[in-house]
Amino acid sequence: QVQLVESGGGLVQPGGSLRLSCAASGFSFSDDYMTWSRQALGEELEWVTSISMLGTSTFYADSVKGRFTVSRDNVNNMLYLQMDNLRPEDTAVYYCVKGGFGYYARGPRGQGTQVTVSS
Questions:
Q1: Which one in 49, 67, 79, 102 has a CA-CA gap of 20 to 30 Å to 19?
Q2: Strand partners of residue 105
Q3: CB 29 within 8 A of CB 74
Q4: What does each C-alpha distance from 50 to 13, 15, 118 come to in angstroms?
């Protein structure tokens, strides 16, 4: 059974940083692309970034390019999202999703972690 558990969210001031983590289990982690999606209050799910199976290829939404960095640890089945220079519009629940871009809204995902950017 696929299990994804996100952590690391919180309240941060504009310009600040957070690092999200996702612990994966129940599937062969290194055989899958992984994705971060987010959902702001009252909005639809939005694709943020995806990473290839070995982590050699990464893809970012224009809204986060240059500020966010996705990475993975296939030994420990962990997915990460380093978020720098955060903006109020980054406020959302962030989800770790099994699969690539095409699965950002329909793939198995965790319960999410809240990120709030506010002064």
A1: 102
A2: none
A3: yes
A4: 25, 23, 26
